[in-house]
Write a structure and sequence with these properties.
This protein has about 290 residues and is mostly helical. The protein has one domain. About 85% of the residues lie in helices and about 0% in strands. It has 9 helices and no strands.
Length: about 290
């Protein structure tokens, strides 16, 4: 009896189709696994951020009292960021007023409410959000780089071996200083943006100072929402950035990744908080 010839791909028929189906199912399964891993990582990060935030609040009340550490961080966060924020908010004010004036003139022939509308938006949202995003790039990167460098050089491990919690020694002073100085810087940035906008309106649209400086549309709800955003952003930036620094591993490359992660996550936290606070303000003050 002659030996049977090996099966060709054409003879395989259902087997080959079955192999194609199994290979086709591999891609959706891989995608689902990737999404699941990302969701688990997001949940783990959220849990760690919550832990850092709660422990920071605890040490703000029951931790060690060292005003000098808070003052030093207030100088680093506030004084060293003032020039940067002043320049940014000044140009932002010019751009917003100029573009808003051009768009308004396409609809109505006068700009009597330009200053009032701009001031309302500035107090309620723009000053806090834009200022916090700028601070996230500078303050967040600085906190993550400093804490991450202490992690890779084992200074944080030395604190733990000395029975000292890194949250109390490293995060709490930056947390308190960030809340205070973020609020001060955003108020200062809003003032700069408003006056730069007033100068732009006067030079480009011949709008008088008395007409532009109209505060009739700013109410207590706008001030409340703006201040809540200042405090929330000031609290989120150091917590997110310190978490990125404390989770650093490796050498200088790990510090670089931690710095990048801190800036991205801090900016994302500002945007998410902006949405949540704005929605809550709409429900409370409508």
């Amino acid at each position: 009896m002659a030996p049977r010839a090996p099966a060709t791909p054409d003879d395989a028929g259902p087997m080959s189709h079955g192999g194609e189906l199994r290979e086709g199912r591999a891609e959706p399964e891989g995608f689902v696994a990737l999404v699941g891993a990302g969701a688990m990582e997001l949940g783990r990060t959220a849990k760690e951020l919550y832990s850092v935030f709660v422990r920071t609040l605890y040490y703000c009340v029951y931790g060690r009292k060292e005003p000098g550490a808070v003052l030093a961080q207030m100088y680093e966060i506030g004084n060293r960021s003032m020039f940067f924020l002043t320049v940014v908010m000044g140009f932002i004010g010019m751009i917003l007023v100029y573009q808003a004036g051009l768009q308004t003139l396409r609809v109505v022939p006068e700009l009597s409410l330009l200053g009032a509308t701009y001031l309302e938006l500035l107090v309620r949202d723009l000053a806090a959000s834009i200022g916090a995003l700028m601070l996230a790039t500078r303050v967040g990167a600085g906190i993550a780089a400093e804490v991450g460098s202490m992690v890779v050089t084992e200074q944080v491990d030395a604190l733990r071996m000395s029975a000292a919690d890194p949250i109390d020694y490293l995060v709490k002073p930056r947390f308190i200083a960030s809340i205070l100085m973020t609020t001060v810087l955003i108020i200062w940035g809003a003032t700069v943006a408003f006056f730069s906008g007033a100068i732009t309106a006067y030079l480009m649209f011949d709008l008088t100072w008395e007409t532009f400086m109209n505060v009739s549309m700013v109410g207590p709800d706008d001030l409340t929402i703006g201040l809540v955003k200042c405090v929330a952003y000031g609290a989120a930036i150091p917590v997110v950035s310190a978490h990125s620094g404390l989770s650093t591993f490796g050498g200088s490359e790990g510090v670089g990744w931690a710095t990048t992660r801190a800036v991205v996550n801090s900016s994302l936290a500002v945007i998410i908080l902006n949405l949540l606070i704005s929605a809550a303000g709409f429900l409370v003050f409508r």
